[in-house]
Amino acid sequence: MSVWGSRELRVRGRKSGEWRSTPVNLLSFAGEHYLVAPRGDTQWVRNLRVAGDGELRLGRHNQVFQATELGDAEKLEVLRAYLKRWKAEVGVFFGGVGADASDADLLRIAPDHPVFRIAFTESA
Q1: Contact assessment for residue 13 and residue 48, using Cβ atoms and an 8 Å cutoff
Q2: 32 located within any domain
């Protein structure tokens, strides 16, 4: 069951090569798909940076994807859309910054919240 776009992220560990999984919120915005790390530079972020790909699972359905990390300047509208949708759930991790924040405030927090553009390649 999905709660507002939640999925199970599966990505290979950067050291072990074993599959690791964690719940994430998949954001669909402006015709693209994104994963935002509200808790910052977590293990799944580090693993995804190294692997460059992974799977998103919803129930029994898996979607394989390639990931591209965005630069801080590219994150503004994605972070704004993410906070608009999930601030009640994850707002505590954004230091009081919300969807209605100024661009300057979003730029200030952008380095603390990795964002990946997701391109689906196939269903597994």
Answers
A1: no
A2: yes
Q: Smallest Cα–Cα separation from 40: which of 109, 89, 117, 103?
A: 109
- Using DSSP's 3-state secondary structure scheme, residue 99 falls into coil
Nearest to 97 by CA among 81, 114, 111, 80: 80
Domain-embedded: residue 77: yes
Tracing tokens 């759930």 back to the chain, one arrives at 89
Per-residue pLDDT at 52: 97
- Rounded CA-CA distance 50/56 in Å is 17
By residue range, what is the domain housing residue 13? 6-123
Strand partners, 25: 6
Residue type, 34: Y
109 assigned to some structural domain: yes
Q: What CATH number is given to the structural domain containing 97?
A: 2.30.110.10
Cα–Cα distances in Å, from 3 out to 59, 73, 103, 124? 12, 29, 28, 22
Q: What's the pLDDT score for residue 74?
A: 96
Quick one: pLDDT at residue 85?
92
